[in-house]
Amino acid sequence: MTHPPLPTSDPALRGRHLLALPPGIEPDEVETLAASRFAAARWEATGGDAPARTRRPMTAAFGIRVAQVPAAPVLRLSRHSTVSGPYAVTRDDVVALGLPVATTQVYDVRTLTERGDKPFPGGDRDGIKRAFPDGMPVREEERVVQWLVDVARRLGGSVRIGGRGTVLTPDVESAIDLTVFTDGWVEPADALAVVQRVAPHARLSVPRAVWDGPLSGAGREAATNAPSGVAEPGGSGLRAALERHGVEDPEQRRRLLAEAAAFDEMMLAAPVEVHSFGVLVGLGVDGVIALEVEEPHDVPPLLQSVAWAQRGVVAYRLHWEPVVVDELEAERPTLEHRVARRRAAGTMHSIARAVHAAVGGEIADESDFLVAPEDL
User: Fold this and answer.
1) Do 232 and 240 form a contact (C-beta atoms < 8 A)?
2) How far apart are CA 261 and CA 234, in angstroms?
3) Which site among 79, 122, 250, 323 is 20 to 30 Å from 208 CA-CA?
4) Is the Cα dihedral 54, 56, 58, 62 positive or negative?
5) Under a CB-based contact definition with an 8 Å cutoff, are residues 161 and 347 in contact?
6) pLDDT tens-digit series, residues 260-318
7) Domain extents for the chain?
């Protein structure tokens, strides 16, 4: 398929954000990544089977003819933002725009210009603070710019920021966290067994102390049977707290103690159901991997219409934490960090495949882009 040339003669082009991609990336891949973040993403209707854009007349041996080239499709992200393309670029275009030499196609992005405060000091893994030194993008522009950077990371491309012309080329290995979304809940011991197939030294992340009921002397019998005018027995922390907060009336203290004791008995008889837990895998000098199991508040847009997701979703989140945590947000981390990250990624991928084989569902990366198990 022949792509239309990038309209470099458009004076407003350099003021818009551009998504630059290497060869081999099809438009439907960009569409899928758009639908992963923007629920209303869709190709705009063109009103014809083969939209065409008329270029300037060209001379030919037998007179004058008009060259017809396909018009660039328009992918709508939201009410305020669209992505047009792909456009073909020449070597001169790549050099003039400061894009990587591997660039063969470009998408032209139209969105609102919405800026907030200057960036705060600190980590800048994606380079967005560097690209917006006078004011960070907010609201719609922030969502679009972050999506562009995430797409560039996923597809090995770059983003040219409109205006300043800063080119961001995110490291494809910088985001290794994964999540398995499914409708199946696995008990902590079973989840541990799954992870231990890959990492035998994995362990459950549990509290250091287990609550086994109220303190001695704070029970219902002590609270209700103490004679009037006699201090409550047991010396419990609750009684001391009531005294500190000015509850001096013995009858009122006994009533509050009785209510607390009734709540304690209820909790002991029917413990709260566990809705989250974790499994830890120590990697020594490479840091630690945590598998966190929970019921998420938000589900990626691509999964919201899936039948099994309507029954409720459980998220099995895999997060890597290096020895030096600050390196996670460094745009150019040290060699030691990159080596540790690569070794940790191999273990992460194996755990994700094992969890997916056990519970089913879908695997997503940090950007909520779906990943096939065989691609890990």
Assistant:
1) no
2) 13
3) 323
4) positive
5) no
6) 777 666 666 655 555 679 999 999 999 999 999 999 888 888 888 888 988 889 999 99
7) 13-168, 178-208+275-375, 220-269
At 7, give phi and psi (nearest 5°): -75, 75
Q: Which amino acid is at 145?
A: V
pTM of structure: 0.77
- Tokens standing for residue 122: 């600190």
Q: pLDDT tens for residues 323-338?
A: 999 999 999 999 999 9
**Beta strand spans in 26-104 (E):** 42-43, 52-60, 63-70, 74-76, 82-88
Closest CA to 179 of 370, 375, 376: 370
Alpha carbon separation from 217 to 49, 186, 232, 255, 268 (Å, rounded): 82, 39, 8, 15, 16
- N residues, the chain: 376
Token readout for 188 is 């902590």
Q: Name the residue with tokens 């894009």.
A: 99
Report d(CA 34, CA 375) in Å as an integer: 20
Parallel/antiparallel/unpaired status of strands 167-168 and 158-160: antiparallel
Count CA within 13 A, CB hemisphere, residue 238.
22
